[in-house]
Amino acid sequence: MNATARIRQGLYYAVLWGIAIVFFLPVLWVILAALKTKKQIIAKTPVWFFEPTLDNLQRVIERENFWKYLRMSVFLSLGGVMIALVVSFLAAYCFSRYKPRGTNFLMFLLLSVRMVPAAAVVVPVYLMYAAFGWKDTFLGMVLFYAMFSIPFSLWILKGFLDGVSLRYDETALVNGGSRLHIIFRVVLPQVKPGLVAAFIFNIIFVWNEFLFNYIIGGKSVTMVPVQLQAGVNSGGSADWGYIAGLSTIYMIPPILAIYAFQKYLLVGMTFGTVRGEV
User: What is the pTM of this model?
Assistant: First the structure.
């Protein structure tokens, strides 16, 4: 590699690191604020060198109902996304293999659900849930998050399934395999990266969702983002130490999940098209 190529490569990585640092700065501020005292957080001049304290994190853990809200976040996120993955995989197999008339339009129609701002549909969703008696119920919130996770999961998984050759299906059929055997024992292992990518993308959405949980979840089905909003309005002023501590703890699970499965995310963002036919 000549000198020009090395300089170009160095500039390329410097720009990438610069962009990454800029996007990471708000996260760094939250983490540092969680380890500061109240005076250090609201100081006019930013305090970069300080003795860390765990008081904010301890206050969060000892807060009433914190563990209840955290468990609710885990159960709602996992429950909604897992249901969505099962439904999306079966629907994606149908669209990919049988290609019903109007497939492209149906795919666009399904994805358009995610294009609508949440605030625009919160009133009709509230009225529907109130009419069906689903408001303030765990099952109602799980079904809601599954409904909102299905369109994006379907798009990702259809891209992966389109990259899996029909020869797998034909070979299994010739050898006496049933359709269920083909779907779950032959095709499913080929699209595991797509399932993981869809899981990560949707779990982040559900994990951080606030509006619908606040409106139709109610006190009995409350997740941590709603508790975070309560901390903002605590005592008539924002309790920044509590907010930073709660945010730091709440960021840990998705960060670990993204780090563990990061190799699948790039493939997922390209909807499986980088794989080609296998």
Answer: 0.85
